């Protein structure tokens, strides 16, 4: 399948629409993670619908000293990958096309949620991101727009903007795509040297350690609920060699666990990575409520996101995993 390359909003408006339009927004340098988004969009749009991929490196979401100038531009390869993945069109406007009057004076504000975590590390980033997303939603007029879970705070803010400002579009989050070694796919991975990449694996390893600690804790808590409380029943269990296991289950289930244990397990991996050569320099490790990205308490129940950001060499990387608290046996 060959994707048409469109450069202007007029070109996009001139396309005859049939069925549902699904849009995947990118900054280019497409990889398998983007291809997964496009394939998902193709399934959602169906054979009668249309998939549009936007490629635009948005200057508003890059702060001072960030990598706007060196951000990879690979449009020809992007168009080819988009087409092979199921896109009908690639909309790749210029900066002047998106911001015809220069930097916009009126912008979307991300509010307090946009000042936490990534917003604290990159002031103004989410205001710029939401502004261009709002513009691209208006320009492309999709029925559904898809974004990757890897940028969890971005996804949460887009969902909040669409809800709060009554955009008539469905937002779909697509799970993070990882390389075989666990590193989350990112256009910035290409900046890593082999040694830096080995250190960078600590991000996903820390998340997996937190997830596994949570899964073990939940499993033990579930087992503890089934441990007999009466002396007679305990004796019966002892006869088949389970009393020690029951005691262990009670002991673990009543020790510190939950969010605190998840954070501790993840931080242990990150602390070890800080001593590597080259070292990992942690920006944050957070376990947050995805509705507002505030830290959750030890009594929290429901969906949460374990998020991490760090620098290895000159490259800054982010990653996250969803977790569920308060339901036995299911940690993700």
How would you describe the overall organization of this protein?
By secondary structure, this protein is α/β, with parallel strands linked by helices. It contains 11 helices and 10 strands. It has a 6-stranded parallel sheet with strand order 1-4-3-2-5-6, with helices on both faces. Helix 8 packs across helix 10 and helix 8 packs antiparallel against helix 11. The protein is globular, with a radius of gyration of 23 Å. The protein starts with a strand and ends in a 7-residue tail after the last strand. 37% of the residues are buried. About 2% of the residues have low confidence.
H/E element string? EHEHEHEHHHEHEHHHHEEEE
Question: How much β-strand is present in the residues?
Answer: 15-25%
Question: Which oligomeric form is depicted?
Answer: single chain
- What structural category characterises the helix and strand content? alpha/beta
Helix content: 40-55%
* Tally of individual helices: 11
- Alpha-carbon Rg, integer: 23 Å
Overall mean pLDDT: 89
Strand order of the largest sheet: 1-4-3-2-5-6
Number of strands: 10
Q: What is the terminal-to-terminal distance?
A: 35 Å
> Biggest sheet, open or closed, and with what strands and sense?
6 strands, parallel
Overall form: globular
Question: Which stretches are low in confidence, meaning pLDDT under 50 for 5 or more residues running?
Answer: 251-255
């Amino acid at each position: 399948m060959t994707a048409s390359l469109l450069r202007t909003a007029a070109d996009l408006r001139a396309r005859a629409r049939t069925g549902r339009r699904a849009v995947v927004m990118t900054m280019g340098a497409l990889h398998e993670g983007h291809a997964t988004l496009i394939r998902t969009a193709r399934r959602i749009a169906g054979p009668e619908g249309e998939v549009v991929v936007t490629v635009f490196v948005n200057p508003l979401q890059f702060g001072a000293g960030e990598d706007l100038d060196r951000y990879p531009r690979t449009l020809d390869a992007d168009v080819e990958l988009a087409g092979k993945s199921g896109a009908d069109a690639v909309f790749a406007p210029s900066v002047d096309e998106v911001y015809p009057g220069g930097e916009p004076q009126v912008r979307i504000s991300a509010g307090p949620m946009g000042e936490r975590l990534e917003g604290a590390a990159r002031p103004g980033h989410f205001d710029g991101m939401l502004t261009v997303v709002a513009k691209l939603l208006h320009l492309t007029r999709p029925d559904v727009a898809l974004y990757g879970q890897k940028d969890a705070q971005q996804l949460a803010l887009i969902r909040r903007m669409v809800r709060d400002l009554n955009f008539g579009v469905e937002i779909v989050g697509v799970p993070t795509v990882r390389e075989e070694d666990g590193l989350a796919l990112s256009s910035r991975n290409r900046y890593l040297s082999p040694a830096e990449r080995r250190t960078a694996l600590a991000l996903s390893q820390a998340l997996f350690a937190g997830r596994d600690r949570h899964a073990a804790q939940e499993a033990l808590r579930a087992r503890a609920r089934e441990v007999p409380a009466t002396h007679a029943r305990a004796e019966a269990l002892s006869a088949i060699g389970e009393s020690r296991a029951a005691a262990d289950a009670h002991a673990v289930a009543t020790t510190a666990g939950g969010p605190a244990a998840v954070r501790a397990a993840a931080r242990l991996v990150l602390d070890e990575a800080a001593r590597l050569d080259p070292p990992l320099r942690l920006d944050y490790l957070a376990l947050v409520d995805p509705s507002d990205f505030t830290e959750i308490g030890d009594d929290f129940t429901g969906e949460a996101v374990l998020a991490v950001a760090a620098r290895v060499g000159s490259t800054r990387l982010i990653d996250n995993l969803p977790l569920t608290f308060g339901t036995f046996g299911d940690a993700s």
